[in-house]
Amino acid sequence: MSLLIDHSSTSNSVLLCPPISSKVNFQKVDESGVLIFDTAKLQNHLPNEFIWPSGDLVNSDNTTQQELNEPLIDLGGVLRSDEEAIATAAQLVRTACLKHGFFQVTNHGIDPDLVREAYDEIDTIFDLPMDKKLSLRRKPGDVVGYDANHSNPLSFVDYFKSVVGQEFEHTGRVYQRYCEAMKELSLVIMELLAISLGVDRMHYREFFNDQRSIMRCNLYPPCISSGLTLGTGPHCDPTSLTILHQDQVGGLEVFADNKWQAVRPRHDAFVINLGDTFMALSNGKYKSCLHRALVNEDKERRSLVFFVSPKEDKIVRPPQDMFARKEPRKYPDFTWSDLLEFTQNHYRADVATLENFTPWLLSSKPSNF
To answer: What are the residue boundaries of the structural domains of the chain, listed by start?
Structure first.
């Protein structure tokens, strides 16, 4: 399980971006392109380097006031093993995943106090002095800043105490508990996904029981030119499943029906969306959809994100139940580490990731087949 305290394209003070040519005072830190940037300057001036190019998929002017009509799924009956409630939930999951891969879940069993504590610890991390944050940042090209041992429940605590400081023991305990809760929720969702696809209901739960997970804490400061920039640009998740809790500021948008649609924040719900790896596991039946995060002109925005992927060496292929129906395979077998290498080093994840990944995989690793 991994914990990543991340800095997005306009978030906080450490930015990964090209050298700045603006007259605003920036300071280059090292040759990797990591810059120290005073976010207070976003209230007065937005450097040209942070203005996204115009275009249907990136220009904020393409935003509508329309909200995504994603299902709101009550997991209360599912967690009580009520078969009627499970069937209803699975049908709602199927409807969403055939169209855009987004839905929200309520009565999910996650303690709201734990969610609140996880948000509190975001402030603890992002309020650290600049020199401390620079010492903890990801190295260029790395996906995670911290890789913990699944079998050691104190590994989060040990990391925060040894790397961030003794006073961060509580932070480690909070995120350890949060990630354990997210893993349990992810396995419930995996079972519903299997039922919705008509395959062995335990198939995905068992496949992801030893999952590879990443937790990301995001903070987006307000920006006076919020209509010209994005907190996170348009992308699809290359992972399998994303569990997001967004604060009440909002900003998450999904590109569906040829327009950007907002996902309404709900304090008692988690947003669930599929990634490319699960699209492959469903043989392309379910969608990994383009989405983005907008910054707000007046308010700071925070979110908690938990990404679920298979263990790196597991073979990603649809369940045998699908092959029995004589369905043609849409994608070759691959491992999560293969797709991770492709999206981190060769390709920014978008709506065509798997189509572009397949020829790369076949040409670079022919021995796999």
So the answer is: 2-6+53-310
Contacts (Cβ under 8 Å, ≥6 apart) of 30: none
Query: At 250, is the pLDDT very low, low, confident or very high (cuts 50, 70, 90)?
Result: confident
pTM: 0.85
CA gyration radius, the chain = 20
Question: What local confidence, expressed as pLDDT, does residue 101 receive?
Answer: 96
Kindly give, in sequence order, each residue whose CB lies less than 8 Å from that of residue 1, ignoring residues fewer than 6 positions away: 148, 150, 179, 183, 212, 213, 215
pLDDT (0 to 100) of residue 150: 43
Class of domain 2-6+53-310: mainly beta
Q: CA 58, CA 56: separation in Å to the nearest integer?
A: 6
The residue assigned the tokens 């995905």 is 204
Say which of 177, 301, 302, 325 is annotated catalytic: 301
- Structure-block tokens of residue 225: 């030119």
Long-range contacts (CB closer than 8 Å, 24 or more residues apart) made by 246-251: 246/271, 246/301, 246/303, 247/119, 247/301, 247/302, 247/303, 249/296, 249/299, 249/300, 249/301, 249/302, 250/296, 250/301, 251/220, 251/293, 251/294, 251/295, 251/296, 251/301
Q: In whole angstroms, what is the distance from residue 346 CA to residue 173 CA?
A: 36
Q: Would residue 301 show up in a list of annotated catalytic residues for this protein?
A: yes
Q: Regarding predicted confidence, which is higher, 151 or 174?
A: 174
- Using a pLDDT cut of 70, give the percent of the chain over it: 74
Cβ burial of 7 (10 Å; 0-12, 13-18, 19+) is buried
